[in-house]
Amino acid sequence: MIESQWIMPADKAMLEEALAIRMEVFCDEQGFSPSLERDRLDDIAIHLLLTVDGVRAATGRLLQKPDRSWVIGRVAVRASFRRQGLGDMLMRMLIRKARDLGAGDIHVDSQVQAIPFYASLGFVPAEDGEHMDEHVPHRQMVLPAGVEPASQCGHH
Length: 156
What we know:
Number of domains: 1
CATH topology: Aminopeptidase
CATH superfamily: Gcn5-related N-acetyltransferase (GNAT)
Strand order of the largest sheet: 1-2-3-4-5-7-6
Distance between the termini: 18 Å
Number of strands: 7
Oligomer: single chain
Number of helices: 4
Order of helices and strands: EHHEEEHEHEE
Strand content: 35-45%
Radius of gyration: 15 Å
CATH architecture: 3-Layer(aba) Sandwich
């Protein structure tokens, strides 16, 4: 059974659960610096945590930046839960929440290898090209206002 939980910034205990997934995926697996993984944005973002059969499996965060743009970030699915549609489910829930909160364009800073995943949800590359985040190439992508992810029918 898959359960979802929205975590508000004040819920420090549940935020630690989400951070544990991020540390495992981004630091242990991908070699990102643990000292840079948790940032000040965690204290203002809304986080989503997916649990599968009682095990914390995936997380992502949503925030509105000072310029009023919306950003989905730190999307992470633990290795043992990949290829089961959790990333897709997580992103659709984050997009829906952003839209419910009034988001127009929604941005994501995608690892280049993940661009096809975000493109499958309707995100398009921004004009600024690739950039490096530590040792991994990234590309800004945007889901334009009014664009919703395609139906999941036949997706998996």
